[in-house]
Amino acid sequence: GASGSIRGLLTLIVGLSTLGVASPLKTYNCPPGSNGWPCVRGADGKPATIRVMFMDKTFVTSNKNASARFAATGRTYVAGSTCDNVETAIPECFVASNWNSGWIGAFMSQVFQDMGVNVIALTKANFSDEALAAQTSSSYTRCAWEVRYGNVDLCVGDFWETPERRNLTSLTTPIDSDTFTLYTYRNPQASKPPFSPSQFMNIFFPFDNSVWLLCAVTIVVCALSYWVIEGPFESPENDAAERVGANEGKWQARLMLFQQTVQEWLAGCWYVCMAFLGGDNYVTEYSRSWPSRLVTLAIGMFVFVHVNSYAGSLAAYYVQNNQVQLGMITGLSDIKVQNGYLCLYNSMAAATKNILSANVPDNQQFRLMDNYGPMLERLRAGACLGAVVGKFETLTYIAASNMTFNVCLAPADTEHQSACQNKILDPTQVRLNPNTCASQCQYARRYCDLVRVDDDVINSITLAWEFPVRTSLEPWVSYYMQRLHTTGQLGGFQQREIISPNPVICEDPAPPSLSVGLDRLAGTFLINGGVVLVGLGLHLLMLVWRYRQRREAMGKEAAARARAA
User: Fold this and answer.
1) pLDDT on residue 190
2) Residue from 72, 67, 59 nearest 98 by CA
3) Cα(358)–Cα(333) distance, rounded to whole angstroms?
4) Given the DSSP bridges, would you call strands 366-369 and 342-345 parallel, antiparallel or unpaired?
């Protein structure tokens, strides 16, 4: 079948590589009579043949021909999976000239042309039994083991220089360096809750119910005190006795006197209430005796203390409720305090152990992942409080949301790695780009809401990108890399292969607004509108009542004239 033909192809590749590479010294030394290096020739003077294992990664080391060929069959090519699996790999995966895409692939393709070497292309599908048995969870480190065992001459991909890889084999000169950013997931409390009727009561939160009750009692008591001391608040022409006609009985006079008393007391409550709200100074002007002035002094103290206390408490309440951090953490130290976990790319842990241990001393708080996609998925699921992300992955996975990868999302699988722990289960293909997600758009822009954390420790970490290489080949590869680097072409490859194809579509989430929103002040609008509506309704009722009084008076007057006639 197809897998059998691929296995045969892989066997042929290994056989060719054995024929094409003699002992290291004979293979890579310049032939006698040469003018010195740079010279990469075999002992027979012909171009040397080297075995290169390409680490398939979108925008980094890519094989567009294999991707197109795979797509022509109606299947989706997944970088880091299709060409790396003996069951799915196709012949195009093993053509060296096809690995000329991605910023590292394009750069190294030019290096190989300058060196004039023949390249046998290998992928992770070519891992030997020895390399597969190596004690490492990183496929990149496994490639370094292949170099150590003599099965591969050069590994090409975004390899960090780590202590383990440095101890296994030689490394080339750095092609560039990686910097890192700490990300966390969004704090659910950073989003304002949906509006509910209960938020109308928020303006009353600075005082509890007992304080509001005592404020009302104080206003009533002060109004009664004024009424007792100073007499009526209304003018003398409103005296009830003057409004009682000579032919009316005593009970009508008493009723009108009672109405006047209630009006005076309500007027007192009104003026004291307005003094409390700062809307009227009638109380101060009306105080004519020292007893009433003492009452005025009590009101002034009451107003001064309670109004200022309310304003200060209300402001503090708003500030306290608005001071919600956007992300779950503000730095590495929060992971330690909250007893959470930090997600790391597995090969990064050893290289940064000394730096990170000061802030996250417990190694059990590290969660090591085999790919950035699964790592961000684990972060998004809340299994980690923070994740350390490289500079180009920040662009492709988060800012540009333009990656496709496999991750196990089965409910029973808590690891969220590229492959499911239960081999019977198939991983889920996640397409982040909304323009290419087809029917799987539920994952589009999946990590746009992740929050960047400005952490000095993570920001200070720098790891060089260097390729594992056979020791005897290292001077030549490093020389040609450095020569191409000094011409400034690396920046052009990066711009063309990874920066330009990834325009930013996900800006950093905005921090919570410090402005006071409707959820805080809705009660003021409700009360204001309600009081105005009540006032208008009362005015309408009074108009109707006065109209009926006039009609009744006109009717009595007409009847009196009729009797007189």
Assistant:
1) 59
2) 67
3) 9
4) parallel
Q: What angle do CA 188, 191, 193 make, to 5 degrees?
A: 100
Contact yes or no for 355/144 (Cβ under 8 A): no
**Is the pLDDT at 149 greater than 90, yes or no?**
yes
Cα–Cα nearest to 99, from 183, 155, 144, 29: 155
Rounded to the nearest 10 degrees, how much is the dihedral formed by the CA atoms of 99, 102, 103, 104? -40
Amino acid at 386: G
Beta bridge partners of 469: 154, 170
Label the pairing between strands 118-122 and 386-390: unpaired
Rounded to an integer, what distance in angstroms lies between the CA atom of residue 222 and that of residue 324? 42
End-to-end CA distance of the chain: 126
Q: Which two tokens stand for residue 312?
A: 């200060």
Instruction: Compute the chain's Rg from CA coordinates.
Output: 41
Of 21, 34, 30, 106, which is closest to residue 63 (Cα–Cα)?
A: 106
- Best CA proximity match to 5, nearest among 129, 93, 65: 93
Sheet containing strand 154-156, strands side by side:
118-122, 49-54, 154-156, 468-469, 170-171
Q: What is the dihedral of CA 531, 533, 534, 537, to 10 degrees?
A: 160
Identify the CA nearest to 92 among candidates 106, 77, 107.
77
Helix axis angle for 474-486 and 103-115, nearest 10°, is 110
Residue tagged 């029917």 (tokens): 439
For the chain, helix, strand, coil in percent to 5 are 55, 10, 35
- Check: CB of residue 66 under 8 Å from CB of residue 105: no
Rounded to two decimals, the pTM is 0.67
- Cα–Cα dist 452/8, whole Å: 48
Using an 8 Å Cβ cutoff, are 453 and 183 in contact? Answer: yes
By three-state DSSP, how is residue 180 classified? strand
44 backbone dihedrals φ, ψ, rounded to 5°: -90, 5
Backbone φ, ψ for residue 377 (5° rounding) = -65, -40
User: Quick one: CA dihedral 45, 46, 52, 57, positive or negative?
Assistant: positive
Name every residue whose Cβ is closer than 8 Å to that of residue 468 and which is 6 or more positions away in sequence: 143, 144, 147, 154, 155, 159, 165, 168, 169, 170, 171
User: How would residue 438 be classed by pLDDT, with cut points 50, 70 and 90?
Assistant: low
Q: How confident is the model at residue 12 (pLDDT cuts 50, 70, 90)?
A: very low
Map tokens 């409910």 to a residue.
411
Q: Is the peptide bond before 38 cis (omega within 30 degrees of 0)?
A: yes
Tell me which residue of 131, 125, 155 sits closest to 9, measured CA to CA. 125
Where does residue 29 fall: left (phi above 0), alpha (psi -120 to 50 degrees), or beta otherwise? Answer: beta
